[in-house]
Amino acid sequence: MKRHDEVTDPVSNHQTDSHADVESRSGRLAKESKAPADRPDPGAHGAAVTLEDVSISFGDHIAVRNVTLQMPARQVTALVGPSGCGKTSVLRAVNRLHDHTGGAVRGTVRLGSLDVYGPDVQPEVLRSRIGMVFQRPNPFPTMSIFDNVISGLRFNGVHNKRLLREMGIAALHNAALWDIVKDRLSQPAVRLSGGQQQRLCIARALAIEPEVLLMDEPCSALDPVATAKIEDLIRHLSGEVTIALVTHNMFQAARVSDNVAVFLLGDDRVGELVEVGPTDRVFDTPNDARTKAYVTGHVG
User: Which of these, 53, 116, 147, 235, has the minimum number of CB atoms within 10 Å of its CB?
Assistant: First the structure.
């Protein structure tokens, strides 16, 4: 996922040097931040993310229950289903965002072999391994384009200007945004179009080089042209990063995902995972009649 060019340095205003002698990113980041250098390979256990019998509730309301799901490493897993069936709740459980909303998560969530809700796991360190992109672009309005990209790195304790420059530029390349913004890195991020702002948010998430990228309906606020660019980007990134994508768009799921997890509401209006499998198989020959009814548009 790395690309580097000789450019005017947006951090220290000097031209970049050759990168031939640069250390590996994991070692460099470990030296500058609290992130460990010896992160386990999420593919070593066949799945980057594993949920076992996961239920999520908010007070007396159960949002989703008994979800068992594996997200294969370096593939795109789409979570589809009607509104209110728990897709986003499941997504947010992976990087412990419910810690801040009063949500209760029961069951087991693992990142590789790491128990996400283990007693010794610090959420901030966990989130240095998991990036997230939300429904609407949310660049920091008072920051420049480049400062937005490297904000996560700085939060994680990276202060080395050369490292910030290199990783920020690489993230912009990986988000297919570099050619658009390379001459205006110091301008406010809010001057970008909606689609460009969303790619900037993706670049910000990629800058920390996460193992997993969570995307919660990243195209819902975009026009068809911007949506197509984000979808191309998802496919491009999936060879390097495990992606979990929440979407209401069945066509989008068919275009970009390797696997589909179908969530529906049970008779008591609680979200349930009714089927999961390779995208082509789930859409063409679903095992569950409820899946067939949903993907063909007869319900939902």
Answer: 53
Indicate the length of the chain as a whole number: 300
Q: Which of 162, 230, 151, 247 is nearest to 193 (CA)?
A: 230
Q: How many Å from the N-terminal Cα to the C-terminal Cα in the chain?
A: 38
Closest Cα partner for 137 from 127, 125, 129, 145?
145
Per-residue pLDDT tens digits of the chain, which is 300 residues long: 544 444 445 554 433 333 333 234 444 444 454 444 444 444 444 899 999 999 999 999 999 999 999 999 999 999 999 999 999 999 999 999 999 888 999 999 999 999 999 999 999 889 989 999 999 999 999 999 999 999 999 988 889 999 999 999 999 999 999 999 999 999 999 999 999 999 999 999 999 999 999 999 999 989 999 999 999 999 999 989 999 999 999 999 999 999 999 999 999 999 999 999 999 999 999 999 999 999 888 775
What is the identity of the amino acid at 198?
A: Q
